[in-house]
Design brief:
One of its GO terms (biological process) is NAD+ biosynthetic process. 39% of the residues lie in helices and 18% in strands. It is α/β, with parallel strands linked by helices and 629 residues long. The chain folds into three domains: 281 residues, Carbon-nitrogen hydrolase (Nitrilase/N-carbamoyl-D-aminoacid amidohydrolase, 4-Layer Sandwich); 220 residues, HUPs (Rossmann fold); 112 residues, no CATH class. Strands 1, 2, 3, 4, 5, 6 and 15 form a seven-stranded mixed β-sheet that branches. Helix 1 links the parallel strand 1 and strand 2. The longest helix has 24 residues.
């Protein structure tokens, strides 16, 4: 009986002392269960998303110190874990100390080096440099080391040989991306297989949650185990890490695959736990059933965990939400109520003359359903006062002494309403209540900047800003049906037309709402940001001309003809939103609150952008001319 423990721990980024303490506690727990090998995640000691903390040599020294503590504590148990490894005598290409993303194996107080290698640890071979990952900025890869030594990278990839219960085992040790080698010239797992007998593979990871990633990983890693005919243990962290503008949950879901590639054991998502597997019995264990949960269930868990941990990290216990009677603020309220409790949640309805009795009533109904704290603070008086001040206070041009007055347009008045709600009422209420106020923007609004700077775009966290509008509606249904088991988000809010209610042109009782046609624009905007090969106007126009637009976008058939009867209308709409997406919306996103990521591409550091303004390719302009002629 060879007992392997997958130690799915919460890794606290930037706190090696706390992480080492967690590891020592879990090692003690493993000993009481007579575990032979305990496996911790990648970068278990320092954390992974640390920004330029990696440039602090004092921090690196602490990581090394706590790593030595884990090594010293390995008496009577084999410990496999991720940490930063320094070669203090060498430099990275940036002139800073040499750093490796490393996989350590310790037994009886000593490190076990990969066969025939100079360093007593496995070095990460494949460095992700996309999405939120920035490995090449900080870490020296095995490929670079091979080049420096004049060797083939395969010469530096070797198994780690363990003696367990008097028997020798060759472990194929991989670090996260080393198992995702499809688009790389090197395949570390295949190289390990080619070098001789491997008894089992271990992939330690720091892999943020992304919708659908676990199913893909099970296909990829399951196939690897099946083709090798050997078990594979995948150990991932849980917790919350960030790179400033984008916040990521780490869901764990550590998994044991048998030699048939079947999932035989999996740790609970977002739970710190030891999952112990007898490797000798792995082949006979039944495969776990495939995940049948809807996507929205996974999204809810990620949001619930992410918001909860974010609030704990910033020590915020109370939350204020401005509610309008619309779907986004209602879903935010239902989400936060479950996390902080209704007694710590203050909902504020801030009507103007443009807010209907319908939405005011729905706001109260939502608050009643949640049983939280609630208040109504009208804004019309203060908005009128601001407009009057701006309109009647003279402006003096000091060069010639001439005076003029500002003209406050209806559009400016709309923005004044939004800023009055957030910058004045919500900010003040949050301070008085002893908490913070939320940003309730969804991803469609964030894409095109359909928000007001220092107004509804403000807040301490944008928890829903990586969800398209259709996902916000799905979340409302899921929370009603599964989380609360009753109607919390009123059906009237779900049914009403989405509207900012900032003018008479957005009268919900007359069916007037936002200019964004969400059933179509959700999918158009998604093509701008989430496609791996990002779509631009040229692609959209080509698909439109070929009659394949809806198929390529994934939206409902017939919407394009319904919304845009002519090519001229279609092109005008496309250019309107592209100009905003690549124009003012970029400036707004730069100033937006941190976004909690759930998709394959979230705004913030995940989608790196520059303020260069809109661009239309030559081919686009030619195709546009042809369609309009």
């Amino acid at each position: 009986m060879l007992k392997i423990a997958m130690a799915q721990m919460e890794v606290i980024p930037g706190h090696p002392d706390k992480n080492a303490a967690t590891m020592l506690r879990m090692m003690d727990e493993a000993r009481t269960e007579h575990v032979d090998v305990i496996i911790f995640p990648e970068m278990a000691i320092p954390g992974y998303l640390l920004g330029d903390t990696w440039e602090q040599t004092s921090f690196l020294a602490d990581c090394e110190h706590y790593g030595q503590e884990i090594i010293a504590a390995s008496e009577g148990i084999t410990v496999m874990f991720g940490n930063i490894a320094m070669d203090w005598e060498k430099m990275n290409n940036d002139g800073r100390v040499r750093k490796y993303n490393a996989f350590f194996t310790a037994q009886d107080g000593k490190l076990i080096a990969p066969a025939g290698q100079d360093y007593p640890f496995v070095i990460k071979t494949l460095m992700p440099n996309y999405r939120e990952f920035d490995d090449t900025r900080h870490f020296y890869s095995l490929q670079q080391l091979a080049l420096e030594q004049g060797k083939n990278p395969a010469d530096l990839i070797a198994p780690v040989t363990l003696t367990l219960q008097g028997k020798r085992y060759n472990a194929g040790c991989l670090l996260c991306e080393d198992g995702w080698s499809d688009n790389y010239a090197l395949e570390p797992l295949q190289i390990l297989q080619d070098k001789g007998r491997i008894d089992f593979f271990v992939n330690i990871s720091a892999s943020p949650y992304t919708l659908g990633k676990n199913n893909k990983r099970n296909r990829v890693f399951g196939q690897q185990a099946k083709e090798a005919g050997k078990p594979l243990f995948y150990v991932n962290a849980i917790g919350l890490q960030n790179n400033g503008k984008t916040v990521y949950t780490f869901d764990g879901a550590s998994t044991a695959y048998n030699e048939k590639g079947q999932v035989c054991a999996m740790s609970e998502e977002y739970q710190e736990e030891l999952t112990i597997v007898d490797m000798d019995e792995l082949a006979s264990m039944p495969a776990l059933p495939d995940d049948k949960e809807p996507d929205i269930a996974h999204i809810y868990r990620a949001l619930n965990y992410g918001v909860r941990r974010f609030l704990e990290n910033i020590r915020m216990k109370k939350v204020v939400i401005g509610i309008s009677g619309g779907i986004d603020s209602a879903v935010a309220a239902a989400l936060y109520a479950k996390i902080v409790g209704p007694e710590n949640l203050l909902l504020v309805n801030m009507p103007s003359v443009f807010n209907s009795a319908t939405t005011k009533g729905l706001s109260k109904e939502l608050a009643d359903n949640l049983g939280c704290q609630y208040t109504v603070i009208p804004i019309q008086h203060s908005v009128d006062h601001t407009v009057e001040q701006l309109s009647t206070t003279p402006i003096t041009y000091l060069t010639d002494g001439s005076e003029q007055n500002l003209t406050v347009s209806s559009f400016v008045t709309e923005n004044i309403q939004a800023r009055d709600r957030s910058a004045r009422i919500l900010a003040g209420a949050a301070a008085a209540f002893g908490g913070g106020f939320t940003c309730n923007a969804n991803k469609a609004e964030t894409t095109v900047g359909y928000s007001t700077l220092y107004g509804d775009q403000s807040g301490f966290l944008a928890a829903l800003a990586d969800l398209w509008k259709y996902q916000v509606y799905a979340l409302a249904h899921y929370m009603n049906d599964e989380v609360y088991g009753r109607e919390v988000v009123p059906q009237g809010i779900i049914d009403i037309v989405p509207s900012a209610e900032l003018s008479s042109a957005q009268n919900v009782d007359e069916g007037k709402g936002d200019p964004i046609k969400y059933p179509y624009h959700d999918f158009l905007f998604r093509s701008f940001i989430e496609r791996w090969q990002k779509a631009a106007p040229e692609d959209i126009l080509e698909w439109y001309a070929a009659g394949t637009l809806e198929e390529n976008l994934g939206c409902e058939p017939g919407l394009v003809a319904k919304y845009f009867p002519t090519a001229q209308e279609f092109i005008a709409d496309l250019e309107r939103w592209w100009n905003l997406f690549t124009g003012m919306a970029v400036a707004k996103r730069i100033q937006a609150p941190p976004i909690l990521a759930v998709s394959r591409r979230a705004y913030g550091f995940d989608h790196r952008e520059a303020q260069n303004g809109p661009y239309y390719t030559l081919k686009y302009q030619q195709l546009k001319e042809k369609l309009l002629s």
